[in-house]
## 1
Amino acid sequence: MLTYHSSHPDGREYCRAEYNETDHWLHATWKGVVTTPDGQRAAAKMLQQLHLTQVPYLLNDNSQVLGPWFDSVDWLQHIWAPQATRLGLRYVAHVLQPHTEDDLGLLLQHNPFAGKFELQFFTNLADATTWLRDRQRLDAQRSPAPTLPAPSTATA
């Protein structure tokens, strides 16, 4: 299992991002206080994981974040998202930090990630994982069945 840990200088972990081999997605769990530089460093590590795993699914869990989330939308939109999209990211299930549902309304008025990947917000991890699994099922249904070569008509 490919895992990256991002920690504060005092050793407290604020982000763990791991490739979940069973579900075939990248799962990032953020916790505690996350500053802008912290968030950017950990998100950059996620790009490395996307490059190595080539998975189109990200489960981004902010349910354990304390205090204000780092001021990230502009950086994510212009720096991180284009790179993640080039690496094949297509779906992001984002579990909101508790009590930030009002912030969601502002973001949804103008989705800065439209055209890059499909982003859905959730208030709990169970709903987010269900949505990602549904995306995987839809992708599997849309994938064309492998074509077999046409039988040879040559005669000996």
Note: The chain has a mean pLDDT of 83.
## 2
Amino acid sequence: MPHNKRESLIFTVMMCFTMVFVMSIYNVSFHTGGLHLLTLQKAWLGFPVAYVFAMCCDWFLVSGLAKGFAFRYLVKPSDSGIKIAVCVSCCMVIPMVVIMSLYGAVEAAVSQGVWAQIPVIWLTNIPRNFIMALPLQMLIAGPLVRKVFRTLFPEGTVLA
């Protein structure tokens, strides 16, 4: 886990990139009826705006709330690193899924011209995204990004 603000920013950039990219492909595949070359193209074209939105939500809103909740109710700073990582990750996934599902609902409504359907699309997206995002975060993206992050930036190499 990051130890200072600079490390936290670098880690967040890497984690957000991984999660948004995979979840974009996942969601676009639902709207296009499967995983095709067109799915990857649409996901890649929509990725920059989704990434910037997710990064801003993560950095300015969700991260502080999630860490605050995790350290107030679930873990102590003296707990093991893996316990802290798991608890903070779970606390991050829940609000990010809710926010990004709304983003996806608005994006789908704009592209399909069905503004009145935003609440239905949003409420449909939340459980579908949650069942993908939580295992993705806990089993693939989290461990992968932590490993890559610490390989690129060993402890003590990124100054505060």
Note: The chain has one domain: 5-150.
## 3
Amino acid sequence: MIKVGDALPDVKLQEYSEVEGNGCSIGPNPVDVRQAAAGKTIAVFGLPGAFTPTCSAKHVPGYVEKFDQLRSAGIDEIWCISVNDAFVMGAWARDQKAGDKVRMLADGSAEFARATGLVLDLTARGMGVRSTRYSMLVRDGKVVTLNLEAPGKFEVSDADTLLAQARG
């Protein structure tokens, strides 16, 4: 499992873009995790699935709401990573009004979740392999803090916790 001091894995995520620009075409675009994290301070949070109750009611809204405070604490970008496809993550971004505040990154084949060891197997509940709920502060591609949730909990991966760590 990934731990403080480790580099983010060398995998690609997908991001849905509704407009062309900055070398991105409309639709899903690959995001090379290591390249995208290089030279930046990023608040990363992962969760079991788009449009699920806790994720939609608390997790994403907290980061959207705390965007300005996170930026003033030195965070360059906020990433939400979920084992969903880019189309679902794009629709969820619209639903959550994430706009340009939170990058909704799709880990459709669970490559990031597997590479970090942050896998949650919900096969018995009909949801397949997902990501556990977590947050991490990443500087220049390396994990500075890691907050792992116990199964079914939402206590340490919230925006307030990561904001306090960023201000640290």
Note: Residues 12-167 form a domain with the Glutaredoxin fold (CATH 3.40.30.10).
